[in-house]
Amino acid sequence: MNIHEFLIPPAESARRKGPHDRIVMSSRVRLARNIRDAAFPGWAKKPERVRILDQIRPAVETLPEMRGAFSESMDNLSTLDKQILVERHLISREHAAKSAGSGLVLNRDESLCFMINEEDHLRMQALRPGLQLKQAWMAIDQADSVLEKRLEYAFSQDVGYLTACPTNLGTGIRVSAMLHLPGLVLAEQINPIIQSVNKLGLAVRGLYGEGTEALGNVFQVSNQMTLGEAESAIVERLDKVLSQIIEHEENARGTLLEKKPKMVYNHIGRAYGILANAHSISSKETMNLLSLMRLGMDLGLFPGSDRSLTDELFILTQPAHLQRQYSEKLSAEERDLLRADMVREHLKAVSRPISKPSGSEGGKLDKPEKQ
After folding, report:
1. Orientation of helix 283-298 relative to helix 261-277, angle to 10°
2. Taking the mean position of all CA atoms in its chain, how far away is CA 109?
């Protein structure tokens, strides 16, 4: 099966809705599991990895939720295929580097994804649009409970599930959300927020996780401890922290519009001007400018336009997705030219931003609707 025929089209993916999705772009809960009495993938020889793959993959494929899933060995996917999956946040950069003895099983609506022989034998994750940590946890917990009856996990009565990295020891859970926080960045409040979150034992990372920068004002917030705390308690704690961050972001946006409206309009107007008229633009600059346009959509500065347009361009303008549209190998300079052409074409129907949000009074932001 061709992965590109299987994946949800970017335009459709960008239209998916969820609670608080103007700020929380997606929620994810990941579990790390290993097979008892087998070497971790990083230490295992190729025949051992292949044996583990052949053991885990059928067990995952027969889950009711995985009916009609995409299932493939990583060595049968091209480098471009893998990079597209990374850009969609469906697999990790580490898994993209894997080949024989590693595999992927992805369900139809891209809400459940199983990476086999990444850092651990099995890393399963549930994804949801918006703030839906509890729903994601329930989905992956259900799948895990079924798999635990079919696979013999490496488990210790003293410390819990055994994992390749000590930071995942215990529950093996990683709960995270991807947040769009341009208000806090523009208000220069993002660093205090990050410091406060870190003090609570949570990690704040960039767009693609650990070791990456926050392109497009997008940040990932996740738990760091997995030992000594129940999974439901970790989910609940992160959910509460995210609700506070959402409130801070909404307040930052409202305060900026009230006290520095011209600064906000200037940033958003310049972003639109460059994106709608540039003839060469890098991936990084595109992401940062699309972030400001997305903020403008949320603030009502682009009447008649929907946030899904910027979310679609977030996906389409990334290097591998851009490369996929053209059969020949593209240099970075050629990608920058084609990216600019694509963005200009998509923004043809978008009028320049108005200088006052629709439905606002004196530059004040409408109170956000409850979700």
Report:
1. 130
2. 15
- Say which residues have a Cβ less than 8 Å from residue 279's Cβ, sequence separation at least 6: 337, 340, 341, 344
Q: Is 89 annotated as a binding residue?
A: yes
> Looking at residue 211, what is its pLDDT?
59
Residue 208 phi, psi dihedral angles, 5° rounding? -110, 25
- Per-residue pLDDT, averaged over 311-338, amounts to 91
State the amino acid at position 345 in one-letter form.
E
**For the residues of 335-360, what is the DSSP string, one character each?**
HHHHHHHHHHHHTTTPPPPPSS-TT-
pLDDT at 301: 95
Rounded distance between C-alpha atoms, residue 317 and residue 283, angstroms: 7
DSSP string, 231-255: HHHHHHHHHHHHHHHHHHHHHHHHH
Is 228 known to sit in a ligand binding site? no
The answer to the question of whether 30 is labelled as a binding residue is: yes
Q: 199-237: per-residue pLDDT in tens?
A: 998 999 877 666 567 789 999 999 987 888 899 999 999
Please check if 210 is assigned to a binding site: yes
Known binder of ligand: residue 209? yes
Mean pLDDT confidence for 338-363: 81
- For 203, counting Cβ atoms within 10 Å of its Cβ (0-12 exposed, 13-18 middle, 19+ buried), the class is middle
**CA dist 218 to 63, 104, 152, Å?**
33, 26, 38
DSSP category for residue 370: P
Locate the domains of the chain by residue range.
7-11+13-253, 260-346
Q: How far apart are the first and last CA of the chain?
A: 38
271's enclosing H/E stretch is helix 261-277
**Do the annotations mark residue 61 as ligand-binding?**
no
The answer to whether residue 358 scores a pLDDT higher than 60 is: no
Q: Are the C-beta atoms of 71 and 105 separated by less than 8 Å?
A: yes
Question: What confidence tens digit (pLDDT) does each residue in 101-153 have?
Answer: 999 999 999 999 999 999 999 999 999 999 999 999 999 999 999 999 999 99
- Report whether CATH 3.40.50.300 matches the domain 7-11+13-253: no
